[in-house]
Design brief:
The protein is an alpha+beta fold. The chain has a single domain, classed as Lambda Exonuclease, Chain A (Alpha-Beta Complex), CATH 3.90.320. 42% of the residues lie in helices and 19% in strands. The strands form three sheets. A five-stranded mixed sheet has the order 3-4-5-8-9, with helices on both faces. The chain has a two-stranded antiparallel ribbon with strand order 1-2. Strands 6-7 form a two-stranded antiparallel ribbon. Strand 8 and strand 9 form a beta hairpin. The two termini are 38 Å apart. Zinc ion binds next to helix 3 and helix 12. GO terms for molecular function: hydrolase activity. Keywords: Hydrolase.
Length: 265
């Protein structure tokens, strides 16, 4: 199928194409364990992630820069109070937008083509990517609104870590760069245009080191082969027994010991 802004997130598109968020659903990132069964349930439409206020604030800022804020506001009446004013969280989103718009460099990185879709074959799978800001021949930029940009996340066996690697944004950078290269022949640098939701919003343009992207890509092939087999129903998915999907669908079989309660992250 040909992907458009209208069908990009459809069930059909998710079945036919692999995306970075699907990949992370299957394989996880440092900060979140993957769950094959939940990933498949999401693709089938049996499971939908809860839309939290925190996610919606990010989407609000995204929609502003895409130029689709009117549509977003119409689709999410819950962001307004009964008297028709924006709820506090979304006034915060407005504050973040105003802070970003005061910064020339940030706006330069966000000045590319918005929500540009590319598809391409990588490791035997058809991928879809959607770029927040694409400046052909110059760079790819992804807008992220985070709780904090400087908070160090703890990962077992690794120690403290920046939000970029903790949430697997290096994986996103690697795939986006490669799919753009396959389409255009240009290997472009990848930047995260980041803003925080703190009382005083913080902003940064963060370049993802090329070695990180190279490392990510070189470790993906086996995982992608497995995801293809899972999506084709050739092998059975493994349950993580930790996520909301596994909690909802679990059937107790026997008692456990306390040391089995602590997971890998
Ligand atoms: Zn699970």
């Amino acid at each position: 199928m040909i992907l458009t802004q209208e069908n990009y997130y459809s069930k059909e598109a998710n079945e036919e194409y692999l995306s970075v968020s699907q990949y992370k659903d299957f394989c996880g990132s440092v900060g979140r364990l993957g769950c094959e069964e939940q990933a498949l349930a999401k693709i089938r439409g049996d499971y939908e992630m809860e839309t939290t206020t925190s996610l919606l604030v990010g989407s609000y800022v995204d929609a502003h820069f895409e130029g689709t804020l009117n549509i977003f506001q119409a689709q999410h009446p819950e962001i307004f109070t009964k008297s028709g004013t924006l709820k506090a969280e979304y006034r915060k989103a407005e504050e973040i937008i105003n802070r970003i718009e005061k910064d020339e460099l940030f706006m330069k990185f966000m000045s590319g083509e918005k929500q540009k879709i590319f598809t391409g074959e990588l490791f035997g799978a058809k991928w879809k990517v959607k770029l927040d800001s694409y400046l052909p021949g110059i760079c790819i930029t992804d807008l992220k609104v985070m709780k904090s940009l400087r908070e160090a996340h703890y990962a077992r066996d690794i120690g403290l870590m920046d939000f970029v690697r903790y949430w697997g944004y290096d994986i996103q950078a690697a795939v986006y760069q490669e799919i753009v290269r396959i389409n255009t022949g240009e290997k472009l640098p990848f930047f995260i245009a980041a803003a925080s939701k703190e009382k005083e919003p913080d902003i940064e343009i963060i370049q993802i080191p090329q070695e990180w992207m190279d490392d990510c890509l070189s470790g993906m092939e086996m995982n992608v082969k497995k995801i293809i087999a899972l999506k084709d129903g050739e092998i059975d998915p493994i349950r993580c027994e930790m996520c909301d999907w596994c909690k909802r669908t679990k059937v107790l079989k026997n008692p456990i010991y306390p040391d089995m309660l602590i997971g890998e992250i």
